[in-house]
Write a structure and sequence with these properties.
This protein is an alpha+beta fold. The protein has eleven helices and 15 strands. Its EC number is 4.1.3.38.
């Protein structure tokens, strides 16, 4: 009780200083406790959970805007595919159960703008390497309150110096994000927003937490194929919506294909990061292969931003209301 009291006092102290955890993280779900938690002092994960000490866990996210969870079903489908690849038992947590838990958690939080993040782990049990001693998997979720502002001025990107993950791990959204963390830290050290990985074949791959998109000189929207990188839900949604821009005459075509660094440098007039929370962020000073490339922010990028933002604010099948 003394330890819990100190945690509660710390939370209250943070609240009085204007950085309340209860405001930033208004709700959490834990299958270990079998319920939704509103007290930040109780938002904990068991230290013997194999996700904590062995990295045996997967996660995913969804944007929360005006009380709607954007593309939750698409994210859950990827989440369950990641869990299957990681050999985590999803039997206790079928998709509809997960969906219901996340909607209820978000509704209980009272938050209308931000995001949710959720994890499925091999579960708590022991500190061994094998998860065979874990009685059951564990599911956690949290609501993160934050403000989204679409950046229109663009950012700088550099080629990653940290080796990218092999396809098995790159295509699975697992908690082993150390290469991603080191990659973005390296980019920040070099004055960039993020880095871009180039694979061993010389093709542009992805950023540490985002996909990459190009608009060619012929006004074709191109995204790298997803066979060796994470299939971003926002990127796939952009591919689904972009034909509208072809119909409007802004783009001439939409495609996924491998693109070399040289082609990106010589044949692209626009480049952007695509991902949850951005959702389309122009790259105006990419440094690919050690050489800075001069791109511009043309109507194509602005139109991609507009089509995704419009989709975010539409009350259609892409969004799920929580109120």
């Amino acid at each position: 009780m003394q330890v819990l009291q100190k945690l509660q006092e710390k939370c209250k102290s943070s609240s009085s200083s204007g950085s309340s955890s209860s405001k930033k993280y208004p709700a959490m779900y834990s299958s270990v406790l079998s319920g939704i938690i509103l007290d930040p002092a109780m938002m904990v994960v068991p230290v013997d959970d194999h996700m904590v000490h062995r990295g045996h866990g997967v996660f995913d996210t969804a944007m929360l805007l005006d009380g709607c969870l954007y593309e939750l079903d698409a994210h859950l489908e990827r989440f369950l595919r990641s869990a299957a690849t990681a050999r985590i038992d999803t039997g206790p947590f079928p998709r509809e159960a997960l969906r219901s838990i996340l909607v209820q958690m978000t509704a209980a939080s009272g938050c209308r703008k931000g995001s949710i993040r959720y994890w499925l782990s091999a579960g708590p049990g022991d500190f061994l390497l094998s998860s065979s001693g874990c009685p059951a998997p564990a599911f956690y979720g949290v609501v993160i309150a934050s403000e989204y502002e679409q950046c229109r001025h663009g950012v700088r990107a550099v080629t990653a110096s940290v080796p990218m993950k092999p396809p098995l791990f790159a295509t699975m959204k697992n908690v082993n994000y150390l290469p991603n963390v080191l990659s973005i830290m390296d980019a920040e050290d070099r004055g960039a927003f993020a880095s871009v990985w180039v694979d061993d074949r010389g093709f542009v791959a992805e950023g540490p937490h985002v996909n990459v998109a190009f608009v060619t000189a012929g006004r074709e929207l191109v995204l790298p194929t997803f066979d060796r990188i994470l299939g971003g839900c926002t990127a796939k949604r952009l591919l689904a919506l972009a034909p509208r821009l072809v119909d409007a005459g802004v783009l001439t075509a939409v495609a996924t294909r491998n693109i070399t660094v040289d082609e990106a440098k010589r044949g692209s007039v626009e480049m952007a990061f695509v991902g949850s929370g951005l959702p389309v962020l122009p790259i105006v000073r990419p440094a690919l292969g050690g050489h800075e490339v001069r791109t511009r922010q043309d109507p194509g990028t602005l139109s991609q931003q507009a089509v995704i933002i419009g989709d975010l604010t539409e009350a259609d099948n892409a969004s799920l209301r929580t109120d």
